[in-house]
Amino acid sequence: MSTTQWLLMLHVAAAFLFVGGSVAAGILNALAIRAERPSETALLLRLVRATIPPIAVGVLGTLVFGIWLWHDLGFSIGAAWIWISLALWVVANALGGIGGRHQQRSRELAEQLAANGDTSTDELRALLRDVKGTAVSYIAGAATLAILVLMIWKPGS
Amino acid sequence: MTLLAYSRAFWPLFLHVLGAMTLFGAVSAAAVILFAAHRRPDALVLRRAAFTSLLVAIPAWAVTLACAYWIESDEGLSNANATWLGIGHGVLEPGLVVLLAAIGCTYWWKRTGAAIAGRIAAGVTSVYLVLLVVAFLAMTGKWG
């Protein structure tokens, strides 16, 4: 395999970890919101943490191998689609971090309620369905999807 | 969007990659749940969650396969016998049997709570996850 093929393979493998890990986290989060008891919500939200290491490897890998490929394939330094992708990468990660902190607050409250009778409260339900928290995660997902669009479309190249 | 609509190669490749990533994510979520369930075999919520995660994989599998044929048709690869294409088809098509076996075992586990069903489901799901990783590495690295 050529250097370019190696780089492309590693870049796409990292993208699979990034997007696939985010999909897994999204599924676990959606299941946690629908769970009936706080102990179930807490259990599923704890599992979301297992998706963080692959997502982190993917996030770092897409950037490192992406920039290497940029140089290797000789794309222009002013290629707008690459700069926009980099900006979206920053947005997706920043919002993903904010969404993660929101999930952590929900998990902590669910764990407290699970230890005290395991009955859901309006506070937990409101936190799990919080519009801002949900919107942040959706925008992070949309930014990730937009990166995928740009990577495949490569407008102007 | 108009430009995208005219870009013949965009939609099949975009949907193929998105489908494959969603398939990988759904099977990964199921694997995480199934392995966590070893420590919490009593948790019904985990049995339900593993089953639901694997169900998400089915439409993702269908989109990945349909778009693979769309790309092959567009790019004249229908009769190509490249190794990487063979690995991709080999994992995606017969691999459906493995995915359905994982779903079947998870359903059995969800209904009965039998520990053996959970262990088999975890094993089969892990095998399928490894097969998916081999397939996407082969396809992106154009092995052979």
Average pLDDT metric of chain A: 94
How many domains of chain A? 1
Helix content of chain A: over 70%
Number of strands of chain A: 0
Helix content of chain B: over 70%
Show unreliable segments of chain B. Answer: none
Low-pLDDT regions of chain A:
none
Total number of domains of chain B: 1
Pattern of helices and strands of chain A: HHHHHH
Helix and strand pattern of chain B: HHHHHH
CATH class of chain B: Mainly Alpha
Largest interface: A-B, 35 and 34 residues
Question: Strand share of the residues of chain A?
Answer: under 5%
* Total of DSSP H or I helical runs spanning 4+ residues of chain A: 6
Structure described in brief:
The complex is a heterodimer of chains A (157) and B (144). With 157 residues, chain A is mainly α.
Structure, described:
The complex is a heterodimer of chains A (157) and B (144). With 157 residues, chain A is mostly helical. Chain A has one domain. Helix content of chain A is 83%, strand content 0%. Chain A has 6 helices and no strands. In chain A, helix 1 (3-34) runs antiparallel to helix 2, helix 1 runs antiparallel to helix 3 (52-72) and helix 2 (38-48) runs antiparallel to helix 4. The longest helix of chain A is centred in the middle third of the chain and has 36 residues, at 80-115. In chain A, 39% of the residues are buried. Chain B has 144 residues and is mostly helical. Chain B has a single domain (9-141), classed as Four Helix Bundle (Hemerythrin (Met), subunit A). The termini of chain B are far apart. The relative contact order of chain B is 0.16. Chain A binds chain B through residues 1, 5-6, 8-9, 12-13, 15-16, 19-28, 31, 35, 37, 40, 43-44, 47, 50-51, 54, 145, 148-149, 152-153, 155, and chain B through 3-4, 7, 10, 13-14, 17-18, 20-22, 24-26, 28-29, 32-33, 36, 40, 43, 45-46, 48-49, 52-53, 56, 136-137, 140-143.
